[in-house]
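We modelled the chain as a single entity of 128 amino acids. Its sequence is:
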Amino acid sequence: MKQEVLGINAPKRACEDKNCPFHGNLTVKKELLKGKVVKKDTSRSATMEWFRPILIHKFERYEIRRSRLRIHNPPCINAKVGDEVLVARTRPLSKTKNHVVLNVIVADKDQQKKKTVKKKTEKIEESQ
């Protein structure tokens, strides 16, 4: 098990995934990207996207363009839809996957709110 990859500490949860950069044999390159997870599959895959401004000289304005990327989501990290993630480039993992999630930067606030509301309702039900 690697304790650190590109300055990012290993997650506390362990996994048996051979394509995990921390617990498996996967090496990562220094090419890092940040984006938001928009889709998650059951087969340890996810889709992330990020937006970038492009200048249009004729109108002297910017337009926003979107990029999407298929990524590997190890079970020890398990990024959810809406999470802001840090992704590193790796060797090809499949036909379309060349990147792996290293870290969840910001978890989705809506999911956290739902969890706290659920816990509060459970506590109220238990007390009655």
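As a brief sanity check on the tokenised model: The chain has one helix and seven strands. The chain has one domain: 13-127.
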